[in-house]
Specification:
Layout: E1 5-8, E2 11-14, H1 32-43, E3 47-49, H2 55-71, H3 79-95, H4 119-135, H5 150-165, E4 168-170
Antiparallel strand pairs: 1-2, 3-4
Helix pairs in contact: 1-4, 1-5, 2-4, 2-5
Length: about 170
């Protein structure tokens, strides 16, 4: 049956379709500079977000996650998760798209964006955070995966950015 058509006693009757929720974008990045370029591009045109966070919160969260690779996360996953589970999942997290829906632990305050995040400030923060990869080597252990090579840290940040930026959808207008 065609979308928007309702069968009533053998005849077709036109009906209003319920607006379909915006769908997440398919996003892939090869370099962190592409994340920044995408954020700037989306900020310059009409967009909506699919999910609980605003675009500004998403960008601020990405910037904070990158900064944490240099400054420390301030929390760790339980030892058994780091020792027994993480080694089996690490490669998958580096090369495959991340799944949405992971809830940060309560002690991960440093990664939580403020509700009133400003988009321009968040983009500027993201730019500064990404620039650190050119100037510094990420040295802080990941709370789940532990110590990682700089290239692995960047790959993880790319997959993380893809997942979050997929919630920002350009709109007409």
């Amino acid at each position: 049956m065609a979308r928007g058509m309702l069968v009533v006693k053998g005849s077709f009757m036109s009906t209003q379709t319920k607006p379909q929720p915006a769908r997440r974008q398919d996003v892939h990045y090869e370099e962190l500079s592409e994340v920044l370029a995408d954020a700037r591009s989306l900020a310059a045109r009409p967009h909506t977000t699919v999910g609980k966070w605003t675009f500004a919160q998403i960008v601020e969260h990405l910037a904070r996650a990158i900064d944490a690779c240099f400054d420390g996360f301030g929390f760790k996953a339980p030892w058994f998760a780091r020792a027994l589970i993480a080694p089996f999942l690490k490669n998958s997290f580096l090369i495959k798209p991340m799944r949405a829906g992971f809830k940060l632990p309560q002690n991960a305050d440093s990664l939580q964006p403020p509700a009133d995040a400003d988009l321009n400030e968040a983009i500027n923060h993201l730019e500064r955070a990404i620039a650190r990869f050119d100037e510094e080597t990420p040295s802080q252990p990941h709370p789940f995966f532990g110590r990682m090579a700089a290239q692995e840290v960047e790959m993880l940040q790319l997959r993380h950015s893809e997942m979050h930026m997929s919630f920002v959808v350009p709109t007409e207008g």
